[in-house]
Amino acid sequence: MAQDDQQVHEFDVVVIGGGAVGENAADRAHRDGLSVVVVEEELVGGECSYWACMPSKALLRPGAVLEAARAVPGAAQAVTGTVDVAATLARRDEFTSHWDDHGQVEWLEGAGLALLRGRARFTGPRELALTGTDGGRQVVRARHAVVVATGSEPVVPDALATVRPWTSREVTSAEQVPGTLVVVGGGVVAVEMAVAYSDLGAQVTMLVRGSRVLPRAEPFASDEVGEALVKRGIDVRYGAQATTATRDEQGVHLTLGDGSRVDADEVLVATGRTPRTGDLGVDVLGLTPGEPLVVDDALMVTGVEGGWLFAAGDVTGRTATTHQGKYDARVVGDVVAARFSAAAAASGADGTDGSPGTGGGAGPGRSGATGSAAERERSAGPWSRYRASADHAAVPQVVFGCPEVAWVGRTEQEARDAGLDVRTVRYAIGSVAGASVAADGYAGTAQLVLDEQRGTIVGATFTGPDAAELLHAATIGVVGEVPLDRLWHAVPAYPTVSEVWLRLLETAGL
Ligand SMILES: Cc1cc2nc3c(=O)[nH]c(=O)nc-3n(C[C@H](O)[C@H](O)[C@H](O)COP(=O)(O)OP(=O)(O)OC[C@H]3O[C@@H](n4cnc5c(N)ncnc54)[C@H](O)[C@@H]3O)c2cc1C
Ligand SMILES: NC(=O)c1ccc[n+]([C@@H]2O[C@H](COP(=O)([O-])OP(=O)(O)OC[C@H]3O[C@@H](n4cnc5c(N)ncnc54)[C@H](O)[C@@H]3O)[C@@H](O)[C@H]2O)c1
After folding, report:
1. For residue range 382-426, what is the model confidence (pLDDT) as tens digits?
2. Residues annotated as region Disordered (predicted)?
3. Where residue 499 sits, what CATH number does that domain have?
4. What share of the chain has pLDDT > 90, as a percent?
């Protein structure tokens, strides 16, 4: 309950978290005239803009460009140096706008969305306490819906917590490159940052708990990446886990399970992430703090009465990338707009609390069109714009290491576990003419997982230079369930790397 002296803000929709996902959900929800506020406690733009996707890719790109040039005689002779650390860090700083979010705030306001700065915590259904950056307390109420998009935070194993290790935040925003870096983990962050820091001149050791890096990728892709990491001088230790850690003026000192020691100037912990629900007050809604907010395909949180609570992005545990989180954001924004625009229009509220940038009043969809949107949403089935169907078996992922790895849909094992009758076809990408033009000694592999019953692609993996750019064709094939005999008529241009598609289909028997 609000105390008498507390300012109360009321909007049709409250979005908690102004990361990529929150911004997109808010924008879509507002398009039919609902008033929407985004509540953000740090920087608008969230993890991706400042401590994840953008700075990490900025750190990786110079090394990838040099490697590409070195693979092409004529260009190779012109490349005599290594990555310039200062210029790389300076470009990274440009990508993060020097950790200043005013550009994103301008976008938000230009889109007609309100922004409240501070930490939000549920105090009841559709009501939140907002603790401002100055410690002041306010109340935020949603007339219709709350969308939680609070993201995730790194998990730090107990054995390493006391040595103040780097997490994804420090590794992406570092101002200096340590001489030696030990990376704990073998997942996406570990692989990308091991490559980036080795390009930047650090001597890198990776401690991988299991028997392969990128455990969610196809095993052949893990093997190729693992071998490439070693080839570039990274000390990759499998079955290795830190049991104790200390830090002194010389750096960090880890003891591993087998009793051996690793000393380094710095340690990066990249052992996964956990949904940010620990301090969100979700217990007052009957949910468990620290757990993901489980959602249905309309992104409505399950287990909460009243149909007002939605979630998208990392906080759901359903997606762990920006692109897929933003897809869910588009879905949830459209669902919220369809479900509540008519009710908001009928209630006659002007939709704002007077804050600048709020966009109440009649929007383009507030008339008859909204009613039909509500109908369409209510009866929506899989693959409608109101259901996040792709999350189940059509999710694309790129790991921007060296080689790049890109995959979509199911791995062979996941397909078999799902009961599908599948076979795989594989082709060495370096054998196609376009790849030989792109790079001497192009090393990479393409694999399709084929559903034997339906004659369609249910999974695809590509490794190699710029493998990421091969991925979207596969994503279209998987989402569109394009039959192979129709795909046969999609002719890749000569000489491009995409010609591997023709070779894959020939290998499949066409
Ligand atoms: C190193 C690294 C590299 C990555 N690279 C890629 C990549 O190349 N491509 C890709 O697709 N994905 C990448 N990801 C994943 C991507 O960063 C996340 O999937 C994405 O940021 C999730 O977006 P989100 O909006 O759900 O969460 P976030 O970006 O974490 O945003 C959540 C926001 O909510 C705010 N917030 C949290 N709690 C509250 C509260 N109680 N009150 C108010 N505000 C709150 C936070 O301050 C934050 O701004 C990477 C991740 C890491 C760690
Ligand atoms: N290019 C991209 O799209 C991109 C880049 C970076 C991160 N991300 C996203 O961010 C998420 C988080 O990345 P991440 O690399 O932190 O997580 P991850 O789940 O990809 O990998 C975690 C790794 O840590 C290991 N691990 C877990 N607990 C451990 C422990 N106690 N000791 C040692 N090892 C342990 C796991 O075996 C695994 O190899 C990913 O799901 C990914 O999708 C995406």
Report:
1. 999 999 999 999 999 999 999 999 999 999 999 999 999 999 999
2. 346-385
3. 3.30.390.30
4. 92
Could you report the predicted ipTM of this complex, rounded to two decimals?
Answer: 0.98
Q: Is 431 helix (H, G, I), strand (E, B) or coil?
A: helix
Last residue of a domain, one of 393, 425, 454: 393
| 362 within some domain | no
Residue 358 placed within a domain: no
Helix axes 322-347, 20-30, angle to 10 degrees: 30
My answer on whether 289 and 144 are in the same domain is: yes
Identify whether 292 is part of a domain: yes
3-class DSSP state of 316: helix
Which H or E element spans position 119? strand 119-124
Cα 313 to ligand 1 centroid, rounded to whole Å: 8
What pLDDT does 372 receive?
83
Average pLDDT, the chain: 94
**Helix ranges (DSSP H) in 379-462:** 390-393, 412-417, 433-438
| Ligand 2 pocket test, candidate residues 207, 209, 324, most atoms within 8 A of CB | 209
164 and 312 together in one domain? no
Ligand 1 centre distance from Cα of residue 89 (Å): 21
Q: What is the DSSP letter of 493?
A: P
- pLDDT digits over 265-323, tens only? 999 999 999 999 999 999 999 999 999 999 999 999 999 999 999 999 999 999 999 99
Q: Bridge-partner residues for 197, per DSSP? A: none
Q: Which of 38, 47, 121, 295 to mutate to test the pocket of ligand 1 (most atoms within 8 A of CB)?
A: 47
* Residue range of the domain that includes 227: 156-271
pLDDT for 356 equals 35
pLDDT tens-place string over residues 135-177: 899 999 999 999 999 999 999 999 999 999 999 999 999 999 9
For the annotated binding site for FAD, the residues are 57, 150-152, 314
Same-domain pairing of 379 and 436: no
Shared domain check, 147 and 24: yes
Q: Extract the tokens encoding 73.
A: 């005689």
Task: Tell me which residue has its CA closest to atom 38 in ligand 1.
Answer: 150
Distance CA 391, CA 508 (A): 27
Binding residues for NAD(+): 185-192, 272
Cβ contacts of 289 within 8 Å, gap of 6 or more: 277, 278, 279, 280, 282, 283
Confidence class for position 6, pLDDT limits 50, 70, 90: confident
Number of domains in the chain: 3
